[in-house]
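Lay summary

Proteins are chains of building blocks that fold into shapes. Our project writes down both the chain and a compact code for its shape. Here are two examples, one after the other.
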Amino acid sequence: MAEKETLIRHNLIINKLRRSPLTWKELDAYLKRESEIQDLKLDFVQRTFQRHINDILEIYGVSIKSDRSTRRYYIEADEGHVDRSMQAFDILNLLRMGDNSSNVVLFERRRPMGTEHLAGIFHAIRNNLLLKFEYQKYYEAEAEQRKLLPLAIKEAKNRWYVVGQDLDRNAMRVFAVDRMSKLDFGKKQPASRFAKNVELYFKNSFGVLLATEDQEVENIVLSYSSFQGNYIKSMPLHESQKILVDNADEVRISLNLYVTRDLIMEILSVGAQVKVLAPQSLVDLVREEHKRAMEL
């Protein structure tokens, strides 16, 4: 029962603070009301609130702060990260609502391979440990031994990747976890020179491919059909997305990105529902891909 009450308590605190900041008195009154309604012990003394705040941050990635001037608690937004944290929190709560024996939640049956490595990779990241593994590239016959100081785990299109410093090449590299095997931990390593800027490497990238040194960020303009544009508006391709035109004929957007293979494949995935307007180099690349497809 104590574990159930803790989970419900976290749920109540987060959802209440999502709507508006609260003083301790207001939050305490809310939890007391919920305790009576649900016939559970959901309230607690203020001196233990910091422990709950720490638990919520560790479990859900949701950061609760206090505004000293107003004495109100609020959920801290950190450059959009809170949106993904709350999304994970909502999904976690959905999974905990039942055992899904009635199949009311329909999950995708295909699952990415390699997710069994994520816990080990996360352990290596938190403890600055060298990660040794075999990596099988799709275009190579034999797997190769790699050594990596892992810095972050990245998700893209339902696949998982580990980002880190390749110690043999002394450069940033991205590895797909489904192609990793025989993971082993090495000795603790000094802090990586890339550690503070991991996210910046992907700031102007779509997907997981890193830009080459000679690439520059380009202003990309795409024109979608009004129908497909609804999807692009509801789930932007990138944080830099801006809507330039939105009418019955088209939804035109601009993006500030490197032109990578991941971006080209995303554009191709919607076929005739999108037209590339700029830059001309991307127009030519997409046109050539369509030409090759027609020849097949």
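And here is the second example, written the same way.
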Amino acid sequence: MRTVRRLAAALLFTAAAVALPAGHALADDPTPAATATATDGTAGDDGPPTEAGTNFRTAVAVEQGEQATAGASAGDYLYWVVPADAGQHVTVKATVTFGSGSGTAAAHSASTWQIDVYDGLRRRQACRYGAQTRTAAADAASVDLVCHLRTVRAWADTWSNDPLRGAFYLRLTALDVAEADLGQPFRAAVEVTSDGTAGRDAVDGSVAPVVSASAPDVSPGDGWAGTWWSPRWLWTAGGGLLAVAAALGGHRLARGPIGRPYRGRPAEPVRPHEPPPYTS
């Protein structure tokens, strides 16, 4: 019974050690409302940006969780830049509304639109899922695009092409537009959200955020997260404690009950037998 109580106490201690810190780790995870600091003046205190850049160097800074809008003409390239930290699952949504925004969609032919995402090294990132490229039917009022990126990493091997934390560039453009529709006005709206990760998706590392010196300065409002710690450490420690408890329990079951051997009553001393009397 004493051994059973010890094993139960060890399991309870292990569960508390894993659950309690993990709750704090989840509370500290980046949230979709993580903010960025824009230095180009387009996303000031007056609200979300209402314009977009035309290349990487002039990309307009956008905060996560806010919707940036811009007016352009079919055939233009629109660029925005947004910060993303390690351990985030980033989702990019874009909506193209045909016309000048007066409420009446302009007549147009079928066209194909695409939203591209690049990390701070300007490497195009593949979407895990989502309609990154869509074709708008003729005279359609709008078309929606979405891209769910892979988990943002704090470090990565050169061959992996994993997204590295830092600045992420968004590029919206039309891939296929009828020649008669070139120059027609449209309104674009983009929004970037993210959720934090934990457990098997947690990441750690020691690489600084990848932010270009020639691009708008973007960073989360509460600063970049440290990279030496992740909830993976908690799961590793909890797994080690569970392994020790399982090893002790297996040893106890294999060995059987432990106790003093039963000695019984001491045997009486054996007396020597006297030889029978001699008879003739």
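What can we say about the second shape? The mean pLDDT is 76.
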